[in-house]
Input
Amino acid sequence: MLNYAGSPRTTDVGYSPRQPVEYSHALHAGELGLDCRYCHTTVETAAFAAVPSTQVCMNCHARIAPESDKLLPLQQSYSRGDPIRWVKVHDLPDYVYFDHRAHVSRGVGCISCHGRVDTMEQVRQVERLSMGWCLECHRQPEPHLRPQQFVTVMDWVPGEAPAVLGRRLRQQNNIQPSTDCSTCHR
Amino acid sequence: MSSLDETLARNRTKTWRTSERRNSEQGREGAGYAQRPDAESAEADALAFWPADCGAVTRRRWLELMGASLALAGLSSCRWRRRELLPASRQTSEAAPGQPQQFATTMELAGSAIGLMVTCVDGRPIKIEGNPHDPASLGATHVYAQAALLELYDPDRSKDVYWRHGLEELARSWQEFGQFVRKHFDGLRKTGGEGFRILSQSSTSPTLAALRDRLLKAFPKAQWHEYEPVAWHAGVPRIYYGLQEADVVLCFDADLLGMHPMAVRYARDFAQRRDPDRGSMCRLYVVESTPSITGVIADHRLPLRSGLVQQLVRRLYAAARQTASSSAPAAFAAFAASDSSHGSPSFLDSSDGPQPTSAPIQSHDDATSRFLHAVLGDLRRHAGKCVVAVGPGHQAVAQYVLALNELFGTFGRTFWYDSADGADGPERVRPLDELVEQMHSGEVGTLLILGGNPVYNAPVDFDYREALGRVGTSIHLSLYRDETSRLCTWHLPQSHFLESWGDALGYDGVYRVIQPTIEPLYGGKSAIEVLAMILGEEAGSGHELVKAEFLRRFKPDDGEASWRRAVHDGLFLVGRPAAEASAPRTAPPLPPIPEDEVPAKPRQLEIVFKPDYRLFDGRFANNAWLQELPDPITKLTWDNAALISPATAGELGVSTGYLVILSYQGRQWAVPALVLPGQADGSVAVALGYGRLAAGKVGGCDEWGTPSVGANSYYLRTSRALYFDDGLELRITLNRESLATTRDHFPIDALGTKTREKWAAELVRQTTLARYLDDKTPYVGEHSAAHGPAGSLWEEPQFSAPCWGMVIDLSKCNGCGACIVACQAENNIPVVGREQVLRRREMHWLRVDRYFQGDPNDPQILVQPVLCMHCELAPCEQVCPVAATVHSREGLNDMVYNRCVGTRYCSNNCPYKVRRFNFFNYHKHLEDPRQEVLKMAHNPQVTVRSRGVMEKCTYCVQRIQAAKIAAKSSGRTTIPDGTVQTACQQVCPTGAIIFGDLADPQSTVSVARRSRRAYVMLAELNVKPRTAYLARVGNPNPLLADQQST
Output
């Protein structure tokens, strides 16, 4: 019971904090079809998948719905220069060094860890993101691999059996996920 | 997910707010950032840019949970505190968060300059490295540059402008100072600057020089003075050495490789001539009173009182002249050519060859004479490819050294000089004594002090404190509110070089740009900005001033583009003065040497003032990294001592730790003694830079109650003898002081000092060039004990490429310690303080062991950096009960801090004693909001360890991972050799540390590992360390072979 109580399955899955701005991924990423990388620009080049600056939002919202109450924090942030204080949903312990680039550039889809974000009105954590969960994929990455161009496609369905595709991709791209401790813990 | 999971997940979105969560959120919304007593939660929520050292479910929390009754709703608070993400409102830079960027800048130090590459993350610098294109550094740095990062983030730095009014000291703003400037200096302008004096630190900045000229034009009666407590070189002219061309190097009290403006470059050049597998080795003779870094790497070292060094130089010159005619270079060239066996440098001949006719050298000291004789022979044989250098303090014989170099035909080949820049000639820049005289006589109405700390480090007979009291208005611009600031009318906070714009020509005249890497943390201004303020110039920002001076000086065709290129590169190599093209010139006639000159017998003990290898002249006294860095020679931390040779100590009855009173020129001064083998007899050396009373919480501050570190040797330093002097008396007291040295720490074999000497020869192996080149002698690397091949009890693991490994070349390492500070900066290694160092708990992952060998009165000093060997069959891994230290497939011994429970069995089992344990939370002081700025110095790529975990060198795994990720993401399968450089390797001036992939047979490390000199420590244990050493190969002169045992 204690194990269950302390497990990330219990404590982390479903975490969905209220954000300062009611940003809906379902609207923007789902309905409007924005690619993940339009906002999360550094996901292929850096360890952190950056939360976008207010300026990115204002690219559209300078003209679209400028008087909306929901967007008031946005306008304030842009005019004053203060950041919007987003609450981090997918948080790992500080001694874990996760690198987005290493995964996204190698064909791990966003959905594998973050779920169907394009259907979420408010982002919630769907996977437990524990070390055991990470090791499941590191030990057997085939089911989670996809061609790199489909990484951000939420509703992508593989043309062939995932195991077969995964095996081929793994071989082609020489994907050798390490299970050494220093891969993530430094 | 199971249905239960789903139910809970649904419920959780509504029941997330528990009592604990609510309090924290309310606290945040209500009062903003609130200081909470709980250690874990006191980390900065608002400053969410770097990871705080808080684990997931901490042990304390877990015990709380186990003890409490567990309602399911209450469990939703088990996750750690919520984190916020604060993106910039407007995207200004292209840098990704957490992604490092590098910027080129320059560090100035007492008139020298070294180009740096500063790694910045999220808008702040976190690591300093050398600029590989800078000829003065070639990618390496000295310890001061490494530690400059901590100086930037020092919480004790001055944050405000202060104005002294009567007995009060009031904080003021820059605007108010600006008003004062306008009023005061407008008045001064009318009188032409009557009584206006400026005292500056030594600087080669063209912008500063231009502002100085403008200032002196605006205030014609003003005078500009310069003062540095440590002069790098023996007066004018400025001398450059080409050590990579020199076969014989002779240093008289000249620490070319350790304490010289070009030390980093010279160390590299010199090290390139110390590889017996590559070309011919050079030979280094050093004559010095106190062991130095140059002396450590010397082939022959003669400890001699500094007072007698000048006589030795004269004797050498006399002996050299005796065999020479007036056309000296031709004579030596002819001599060299006539004897074909000496046409090419050949150090294998035991015979000296035909001797030139010369009068016998008179002496009354056998060892010195033999030394001189051998040196002279060597210099003659390698005429044109030798270097004779003399250190500061011997200006009296500087001309002799020039003449010697001329005699041996080195001008233009290994030796260049140029006279001081015309602009800085005596007419423009005056020395300190003139200023002090005027101050005492009350002539100085306004004194502007740009940097420096003359109240602390001016010669004591100047009585600068008293003189300053007679100045009408004094203004001090400095990094800290130090001893001088407290006595000045105005104190201005100076911006650190990492926060300011500037430029510097350095010692070699290369134009370098100083570029800020962060906005001034405390609103400081640089010297050029203050001068522009006083001049009332429109373009007053540092950036505008430097750029304008650049454009004026170089007038580049493409203007802006050249400037941007210069800022990008850190250098602008066009327009470099042609110091190399100096034609040989005859030295002015020297006074004749008396025929039978007998060195005068010294009367008493000699005192030698030497700049400290860690604190320099005292300016770094508040730098904890430098205070804790063991001195390269004495291994002393957090203290200074009077260094005395064993013979002299025996005569005086002094032992290490005795508090002694030094009497000199009527002043008495107490300092602990340290007996140092290798120190010259009759000479007592003391380091400068200690005993600060207004440095800060680290170095000592009487206002804040922090005890002063070390003893202030400036108290004895007079202007007539800034470097050394006779006439010292030493008296013993009954007090004993404990000196925090690391010399005995982590000995490989602590059992029995009797066997230590035997072990040392196994651990630090060395040989001579003659023996090494002789193919018949067994490999140096071979283990000397005879036993069968080592086997192991279990199956040895197989490794996949890359196989990381390291080789450290002991022929090149001179023990400077830059690697130690680099490792500390890169890996967030804490400082533990003096008390803990006394308990052998210093946390440096990399230590430099020092051994003495040979005659205790004239030993050879050997140094060896020791770090985690990453043994393939690691004894530490086998005994960890929780598998916190495991082996990676690439050969790294991984240390997993979150698993470690602090058994310390691994450290117990490590035969090399390279593991360090956090006995306390050494970062606890960072919870104090006043000290929090120090967190900015942390490298976000490396965990900050808390109490109770073991740590050790990781081969900079964060750099390896970064390189691997970059390679894999780009679709490459291999990492080119040289891409991954460990922090220690990167900054080593000599390039002694080589790191790379052992699986690649062409990589530098593989080639080095195959060398005949390669060996591993304690090979008989069969732990298969990945770190190997290359035995030190000395190149002794056969004539002196019995003096230096190698």
